[in-house]
Each structure stands twice: as structure tokens, then as C-alpha cells.
Amino acid sequence: MISVYSLQDFLGLIWCAFGIYWAAQAGRGSKSASTEPNRFRFLRLTILATTFILLLAPSLGFESLNERFVSVNFIVRGVGVALTFAGIALAFSARRHLGSNWSDKVELKVDHQLIRSGPYTYFRHPIYSGVLLGVAGTALAVGMVRGIAAFLLLFCSYVFKARKEERVLAAKFGDGFRQYQRSAGFLFPRFGGPAT
Residue 123 domain-assigned? Predict the structure, then answer.
């Protein structure tokens, strides 16, 4: 059976490739019409880096974080790896559907559009949902307590950012965005149309 550390290395390479692609695409969006201060972006990048250090570092000085929360077996690891790839695929698909509207900051682009196609039919924030699913999968595959800490840290960061984005979108699109909120889930998918 593959060791936990070899699996961490493999998943680390997958996440590294994802990050390189994501960074390479960052400059391809439309011009910004409004943006947030850079200090918020720096804070989020620090949280993201901390997330992946917790998730993928070979070891940390805090032994309690290195303890296992799930037993080591092929099925658990396989499910974790599958969830990692599913999450990354969801994030890629969502990024493609956003097109030139995408930004790593909370901002509006020139001629910003409210996207409701692809994953955005069911989720309002499918990029965050995909990355969180991938992180949860990696945490499960590695099986250490620090994976849970990584997931919770990133989850809190994404919820805060997504709520901030929704305030900006509601101000821009008004009733159109509020109708969209009723038809698509926040981070979990909503199927079957508007909630009653």
C-alpha cells in the first residue's frame, strides 16, 4: 500500500498544478470597474497558504495535529483522491463558465455579467465549493487531524468572501440577483428551482 507521505506528495503535485494553472489564468479577465483593497487579498492568500501547509506538509511540530482521524485503508484513500479530483474538476468548470468575469478579488468587471450557466445553475459559488470538496478529499486521503483544521480554516475564509461578493452583486444586479439566490444554493447545490 502506498504510504501516507507518498500520497501527500502526489496530491501536493496535483494541487500545485492546479495553482499554477489558476495563477496563469489570473491576468485574462476583463478590466476592473471596482475593486477591494489589496490587504484583503493578502489576508486570503495567507489563509490559503496556511491551508495547504496544514494539509500537505510532511509533518508539523504539533503532534496532536498529526494524529489520525480515520483509519488507513485503500477504500478511504481512494474515496479521498476521487473527491479531490471531483472538486478540482468542479472548480475548473466553474472558472470556465465565469470567463472574463472571474477575479481573485471581490470586484466587478467592466460589463460584468451575472453568470447562471453550468455549475452556476445549482451553486452561487461553485469555485469555492469545488476547492472545498477537493480539500475535504485530500484531508480524507491523508487522514490527519490537521486536514480537518485546513478545511475549516478555508471554509470560514470562503464563506466570508462569498458573503462579501453577494453584497456587491446584489447592489449591481438588484432583483435579478435576489431571484438567483432563491434558485441556486450558496455552497451546496440546489436542484429543482427556487426554494419555497
Answer: yes
